[in-house]
Queue: 3 jobs
Job 1
Amino acid sequence: MVGEDGQLSPDMRPFIQTPVAQPLIRGRNVALGGSVIVAGILFLVLRQFALSSALAGVFAGLTLGLNTTVILLRFRVHSSTPLAVNLNHPFMDSEPMGEAHVRVRLLDGRWVDPGPHRVRTVPEELLGGYNLVQDTDDYPVLGHFMEKRDTNGTLSRHLALINQAIALRDAVNDVPDPIETAREREKLDSGLLERSWLEDEEAVDVESPLVSFFRGKE
């Protein structure tokens, strides 16, 4: 799935190339087309106010440039998602024929297996930005993930998609969800503690004078 140089194998697809990401591409194209139409309408309106073609063109061009910049910046958040899946992953919108796999791109360009757990980020004190770690008790580090502070929510969007991809991978591979397993274990532990407490209480009650009194009445 990943070569020795950290590159993707041919059966892996970056997130933006998956079928689930195609609505994002169509949305970008529609928004760009809409910006062109708005700029054209603005040009015609300004010409109606007796502005010269050059001046109307400047205003329309500035409007088009501003809208295009905003649209492309927003799209870059999705297109740069450092996530790839193989052909068996649900993101590919096809019937899986084998195991699903997920890979995450680190800051140095290497693609790595995130492992069996969800992931999160922790601040990188030396290099700045964030490290990507497995979301377990000891937080094993996968690598340097982002070089600067997250100011526009890009990091949270990336992590949400990556963790969703990991959850869907595990569902295809019939791997128990660690979160659900932990919840079931908590319930089991709680039940064991409750039973243990009740047993202790019952042991105390057996020795109590009140229980002896009622036993004498039977």
Job 2
Amino acid sequence: MLQLNIDCEGPITQNDNAFELCREFVPDGGKFFSLISKYDDFLADVEKRPGYKAGDTLKLVLPFLKAFGVTDAQMEEFSRQTLLLLPGTELMLPEVVGMLPGFIISTSYRPYLEALCQATGFPPENVFCTEVSLDSYDISDDERRYLKDVSAEIAGMDMIEWPPEAGSIEDVALHHRKNIERLDQIFWDEIYRMNIGKIFDEVNPVGGIEKANAVQESLNRTGLSIQDVIYVGDSITDVQALELVDSHGGTAVSFNGNRYALRAARWAVLSTSTVIVAGLCGLLLREGNDFLERIETDRRGQLDTINLVRHIKASGVSRKIVDVLESLAVKGELQIFRVSSAEMDVLTESSERMRKNVRGHGIGELG
């Protein structure tokens, strides 16, 4: 028996719910969120700051959502109204749930995952995500005014950049370094000392090591081993989970992933539809979780997808899944690469381009 652990935003849905919440309720909220997300990438991947993990953006933006009057009911309603499934999700999720244990491991907020479960019938008890209730926090008028002013300051900053080889803030150009230092002051001094700042200690986004921990917890439920896991993710929040699964002989898949997910995965899937996840689950369940390792690739590390779909067809997955996969393969909208054999610069460019095409440019650029 195998099990699937899959991220939500990217492999299942097109949304970035936290980004969209900020864009809806915070003035210039798209730029505001994107800059904080880039700051998150720097702290988690470059500086590797102790106590900070990828995805903590989702707690950093919460005081601002509270300052602009967002309630739990608004988060729930907004999530239901804006939920956008990736093409093929309505076929993929029921197929997977019918063949093996499946768990969604998402950094997103609980109201968004509840909306997904209501729309698809996925069992909510098999979801790991970020728990939060804005209604349980109080905020003073002074804090509200400060946060509104600071949100405008953050949205007005230049986007943070750093060279690929950067390993600390000393490697960052001076004007970007000043922005990082100002953000440090805002979050870890000014907001942290406020009453609303306790939200930083009490909300624990399910990203980074927490996703790896969720994989372990799901295995405690099923009684399986890490080598029995198929993990599908697409972003910096999935890195530790992908590395955990890959290091123990499971199948670690980047689905339209960015550079962070690709670096941690063994397999890269580029596709306009998520039905390939169901196809891979059926194939690996029948042939073994090491089956992809036994298939030859070309000099670029690419699998022959036409041949792969033939194997998937023989594994017994539904005719609807096979029909979509055959169409994708013929149209060139499905590509699978062995990451270790691929030219990483070319693969990264192709995967990130597909990511933006499928999810939109603004969301696709987020870490």
Job 3
Amino acid sequence: MRIGIVCPYTWNVPGGVQAHIRDLAEALIAVGHHVSVITPADDDAALPPYAVSAGRAIPVPYNGSVARLSFGFLSAGRVRRWIREGDFDVLHIHEPAAPSLGLLACWVADGPLVATFHASYEKSRAVSVSAPILQSALEKITGRIAVSEAARTTLVEHLGGDAVLIPNGIATARYEHGEPLPGWAGRTDAEGPDAPQALGFLGRLDEPRKGLPVLLKAFETLGRARPGLRLLVAGPGDEEEILAKVSPELRDRVVMLGLVSEEDKVRAYHSVDVFVAPNLGGESFGIVLTEAMSAGAPILASDIEAFRRVLDDGRAGALFPTGDPAALAERAALLLDDAKCRADLSEQARTAVRVYDWSTVARDVLRVYETVVVGVPGAAVTVS
């Protein structure tokens, strides 16, 4: 099958949707399908061989963060040419409601179209205002996928229609093994306030909903009571601005890695005793959790609906009240003092994450492709 996949967000900046598209494309290629991905990206960006650039992205406030999207005559022309030359059996558009390539593809393409909805939000003024325009594009879609119940609810309430639920996938084998980063002991059975232990965080530093300030406030309490504790922070953003929020006597125990490679990200998960996801909301799934689960990291996460589902109601990872640094500190202290509990959470996480492996998820996505292709006999994706 010839499959075209449309990525709405720039390939230059890591994100959950981009990771989902990358892994889906590679899983489909591995089983013999021809896949091409079009994505916002600088023309000189290093892209995988199956991806092409639709032009540079610009930052746009979207869904509680700043997304880097492509929209305009240049992007529209490249999308149109890519579809015409691709001779696709099916076109798979991600986040078609975002003002980016997916919406452009809906406007210019006809034939078997599948869309995946990732975002979760209660209200969106932008979506409400643009609903009539969106409907003219979305009505072309013949197969709809939502990555979570939260994303499905957003679709039903804001855009209408329904979707089959297929979760985000994870290449579990990629994260299972990794050496700790230099200078880090990795997970041990150490316990107590004097033990050389580490908490970990991964996410964009400049995005408030990722909740890093909550973790930093908790570390102010934990760090003073635990002289052996360090905090490992990975992700793009202004590191000096983050460190300025930490008391001077604790700053040398907060280690900033910046934007890390895929290899170092895996090693980071294997470098910490507890991985913390203090997100405040706006998450429809939580790909960072499935990565940490695949690595066997004991997890402490905020009790938002998406995280609760992925962590099996707290059996595959501990939960704390969202946005509460005191509760985070208290729950983290309990985990740091209980090696057996951490080991049990690690084992439960490795088991629970198997349902999200791409070997399962890609097969379910292919079934949706086959359904829409069969529903339009002899049809292929064409340009309007």
